[in-house]
Design goal:
Glutaredoxin, 9 helices, alpha+beta, 227 residues
Amino acid sequence: MNEILDIQIVSDVVCPWCYVGKRRLERALAERPDLDVAVTWLPFQLSPDLPREGQDRATYYAEKFGPERARTLQANMQKTAAAEGLHFDSGPGARTPNTLSAHVLLLWAAEQPEVNQDDVVERLFAAHHSLNQDIGDVAVLARIAGEAGMDPVGIEADLRAGRDEDRVQALIRDAQRLGISGVPHFVFDRRYAVSGAQAPEALLQVIDRFDEARAPRPGWQPAENEV
């Protein structure tokens, strides 16, 4: 039986580099089609102090970076995204949300075997970065959950009740205790860490360490329980 490469990605769904990093990882893994991989998304909040209703995105970026630098950063990010086949848009009315509820949804997606957590995070990334949807709005999150095969009515009720927010916040504190202060942060095989949206070639160097580590030595034969 082949070993499975475990990849944990600490991320925030409002982080544009996290969406770019997802695409770059997908490109890297496409170069190793025979590799069995399990990807898990773990929470981080870049702006945990945002009000739960979020903030107008243009105002948020202007206050954080200054108006001119904010425009430059967004233009450069759009070019970077386009090179990965992504369309980033921040039209009028776009909001920067508090992402706690979105991370709760991702936690639940990971715990339901019939749900693909990676599909849910893709939908959240696209909703925020490409479609200008407010993923701080629990009604929007419930709709996305329903599209991914989850129970939208139950999801909306549980999100409004704040269920499991403490679990997500504990996971974020765990990441911070490990020294993670920026995202995306990739952990391969629980041994090799890569920070930032690295190029596929850099990710492949780490992925290939896993293949090399599990490769049998010359003349070595696996025991029956290792086949």
